[in-house]
Amino acid sequence: MSHFGVRPYPEPSESLSSYLLRLASLNGIPNITAMLRVLGYSQSSEKKLCHIRPYQLESMADALAPLLKRDAADIVSAFKNQADASLLYKPSRMIQDLRTQHIRICPHCIVSDGYLDFQWSMAHIAHCPKHHSLLLDSCPLCDQPFSLSSELFVGCPHCYHPWSDSPLESHKISSLEMQLWQVLTTPQADHQFLLDVITSTIAIYARPYDSVHQETIRVFHFSEYSHHVSKSYELIFSDKARKHWQRTCFEQRSGLMPLGDKAIYIPINNWLRQLGHYPMSLTPFIADKKSEPLSLLPEYQEFLKPLRLRLTTSVDDRRYQIPKRFLRELLPLSPHAFQRFITTHNESIIHQPPQKPVEIIDLKFIASTLANKVRHRSAQQIIVEPKSIGLSQHLTNINHLILDVLIDVVEGSLERLDSKRVYISAENYRNWLDVQLKKACSAPISAKKMKRTFGCPNDEFLHYMYTTEGVMGMAGAQYQLIKSLQRPMDLSVPAGAND
Hints:
mainly alpha, three-stranded antiparallel sheet
């Protein structure tokens, strides 16, 4: 074939796959696969049309140019935005490639215009820019995903449901989606930031009760995608939608209550962290524990990576798994204390395969193990806080006390696991402090630290411990000196203690 008999020009914003399909239909070529063979491509190239790269577009333009009797540069120019990596791809974005893996359509545009708009394939678009109707991800009659065949210009390629019978249902569109319709046609400086906001919302809201949210290269097919994107825009602007998420998150993750609100609301906090400085009015997330149960938000498996699917056996498993490094944010422990805690509770670790040596923690196991550590203060317990004088006078700190309570070295409890208030009996506290002081005295203590802690001016006495004569009795001398410098501690139980 020297050239095509019918050589239409691409329509504005027409997708490359749509143009090839129209060319095939007008020139008696049965389908897109046959069209690609005419151009010298294999059948596997059909899948690459949705994610074509600049060099692939140039190669295809070179193959089309003689058949269309046009310059290859003009063909590239007509579709260059559809292969522009600077606009469409960003490795740090939650959805890295904005081009979806599946075909999405507006049936009303197809009936009136006769081609597929490239913007319909964009992952951040929920509605048709012209009709404000929800884009279709699959046939509303047979629920089959669309395929690239000439029947698509008339109706469903599978059940032949005609697009002319589709009812027009226009929706109210958010200002953000309207602004992002212009990403390809009139790019603006703030578009990349706004795309980060909506793609993060789409990805995280698709797994609304999970502790872990991972980047995905692109969106694969699922029939409710456009509906989910629409709900994601609603979440950004609707306080009611956010409250719904907050309440159902509390219900679905209540097993983490011993770990505190920060653990329960990890999905929401992940979302807020991703949004960064987006100017949005947010009301505080305060759990309403007396509310009636609400309908659950859908959870889409399409946003789970295969590795996580292989590691999990149930929905709850996925909801409560978290990388070990993120658990540190939930517990008020120093890095060293945290490592001791994990070593003590190594049953909570789920090891990934050797090629992905990341330790995953089962939060539910941690929560159930530590549930008895969060209790009301009894009448015999005192409150120990970071600034309690006894801690500094015994050369220790609140982190050490919290860790020893959590790993059962000393009997006590916490107000909450995400707080730094410890409830402990006065006797247990005195004994624990004495042990901590003896540990501290087992190594030389600098005069500078002694002065900072006790305001001790006696340099000559401090120097005695570092002379040859005093080495043998160093620990004992330090211990006795510090005991002599300590001020009396008031360890009386405060009034109003709970029974």
